[in-house]
Design a protein that fits this description.
Blueprint lengths: L2 H11 L3 H22 L6 H13 L3 H5 L1 H21 L5 H10 L3 H12 L2 H18 L9
Helix pairs in contact: 1-8, 2-3, 2-7, 5-6, 5-7, 7-8
């Protein structure tokens, strides 16, 4: 996680320790899942640790209290991630571009948490800021995904 994203989380979630910890845990899990895809490990120990970690993330008090909001968003973010993997290496440029956008859907989960602990107006304020942070942290200076 880069400095800008951490500052974003502090700005919008620092007043709620449970929300901040849960988002940090969720994003860490997302990166760990992506690592499994990007760098297949020869032994299964890392993958098992990621599974164990997922159980912790999805059994936290904050998640359980807000499962009715977070669960459908997490399911859809996972679906979008799977679609992005299917298209990221496509020979068709539009599919590669679309895959790049789909890959960012975990941001919807983060924005939902911002709304839960603040309100919809704060979420709207945070939304474009998060998308810009996400874009620059996942693209090189030429605008290519990295």
């Amino acid at each position: 996680m880069n400095k800008e994203f951490l500052n974003f989380l502090k700005q919008y979630l620092a007043h709620n320790d449970d929300a901040l910890l849960w988002v940090l845990s969720y994003i860490t899990l997302c990166h760990a899942i992506d690592d499994i895809h990007d760098n297949p490990v020869k032994d299964n120990e890392y993958t098992q640790k990621v599974f164990d970690y997922a159980h912790i993330v999805y059994s936290s008090v904050f998640y359980i209290q807000h499962i009715h909001i977070l669960y459908p968003l997490i399911r859809m973010a996972g679906n979008s991630y799977a679609d992005s993997l299917a298209w990221e290496k496509s020979s068709e440029k539009w599919k590669r571009n679309y895959a790049d956008v789909l890959r960012q859907n975990a941001n919807e989960v983060v924005l939902a948490v911002v709304e839960i602990v603040n309100n919809v107006d704060i979420r709207r304020k945070a939304s474009l800021e998060l998308r810009e942070i996400s874009y620059y942290s996942h693209h090189n200076k030429l605008g290519e995904p990295c």
